């Protein structure tokens, strides 16, 4: 395993029955690195990111997160999930719990933290995502943008070393995208290791250390934003950029 | 977005009523106008087409011919406190049979002079059920109170201590049997059904097929035969000399049967939970049981309160089938009351009364479930 790598994928393969979703995906992400993954739908980018905390199980190859290899061993999976936060496209907040309860549930039950202690930390994160006044509301009473910011705060309350974002702004109304991206940019500035599946190319250009372009279950191209946007190597990338940057 | 969804939705509901002048405003408008409104409403809703006019007239005719005789039988011509001879002479219902036989109906063959004991036990039990339904009392002490009440009920029913004579439970009957069988069966079946529903979704094939097999077996067999099996066949498998109480065997049969049906209701709730809820819980590193008890079940059970209570009500009424294994529930005790030759002609009154008793308990459950549903889903909006 290479120096400083916190996430390493080696020739990872995955099938859904006969459908080959990931083909020999290899990737190394260093501590503090911000990686944006893009590509057309069905390219395997969500599958790949979901393999990193084993919401999906890979079938061939190796995935090593923070020095622990992901296998069927439940202990290893739980250990990695404690270190990896995830934000979903559809927020997936727990609707029967208040915002504050959403944030404190896992730290209390998984990390065994005292309620008063974690509630203070949770309020700190809610202030950082700028919705401390919503702490005692239920998710259903919040806007999409607010819900996604709660979801980010919920993941952060577990004090993760790595954050995974699976299309965090795709389900949002356009006017709410910015408030979520602003929070993510702040997080990036603090040095969080981030892997983000997104089509927000402005975000990618300004925040990412490297951009990965996937299609048909493989990584077609990866490089710095400058190289990726100004001088893409493959024809497939140029075509994708042409489509996505047209507007 | 919405600041407070509940007041808003009630306001919307109220608004929708106000928009419908034909309904709500009939009662709300002041004096003079009210008199005119019902006619307008009737014209618009009951006599607006030829078919509706015909149906309205038909319904009126049915009511005209059925309701007055019913009221005459139930109330006007009824005998309330008379002798059986007065009853025979009267054209109405003979409620004196209830007055004369009520202790047999309520307490069955329990020794007559000791019947204050089952009465007290039932009163305690019903009071405790009532207390348990109030949200403000959902505290740790409630469990302790239940333990005390159950011990007190056991002492009252069985006796044998504190100078109470011993009454073996084959002498029990009537309301205590119905209440205890149904409440204990429901209380035991509910957690069992949750385990069965979870097991049915398990990724372990052995557990899954065991649960599916049990549920399908119980659902495929009439309750009567389950009770027979529990009562007659089960003892055959026990070693010589070991006996399990008849009441306990019936309770076990009723519990397993109810659990199978409840499990299917619970499974409906589990299946309605979006996949994202499981994934979010997994991503937070919650264990299976943490995920299930903290995230999945609280949402799933709220969704299936109506079918669950439906099964509770069904179970309550199913207790009347334990008569086939020789237990005297409320309905059986009522039937026994009609076998007295002096009062034999008045069995209908006894059944009406027994039906009323069942209805009171079932209707209470139904009303309670409506309140529970409103309370539980108050904030559960997506």
Automatic annotation (TrEMBL), chain A:
Residues 7-241 form the ABC transporter domain. It comes from the Bacteria. Keywords: ATP-binding, Nucleotide-binding, Transport. One of its GO terms (molecular function) is ATP binding. InterPro entries: AAA+_ATPase, ABC_ATPase_HisP-typ, ABC_transporter-like_ATP-bd, ABC_transporter-like_CS, MetN_ABC_transporter-like, P-loop_NTPase. Pfam families: ABC_tran (PF00005). Belongs to the ABC transporter superfamily. This is Amino acid ABC transporter ATP-binding protein. It comes from Azospirillum griseum.
TrEMBL record, chain B:
GO terms for cellular component: ATP-binding cassette (ABC) transporter complex. Keywords: Cell membrane, Membrane, Transmembrane, Transmembrane helix, Transport. Residues 175-369 form the ABC transmembrane type-1 domain. Pfam families: BPD_transp_1 (PF00528). It is found in: Cell inner membrane; Cell membrane. NCBIfam families: HEQRo_perm_3TM. This is Amino acid ABC transporter permease.
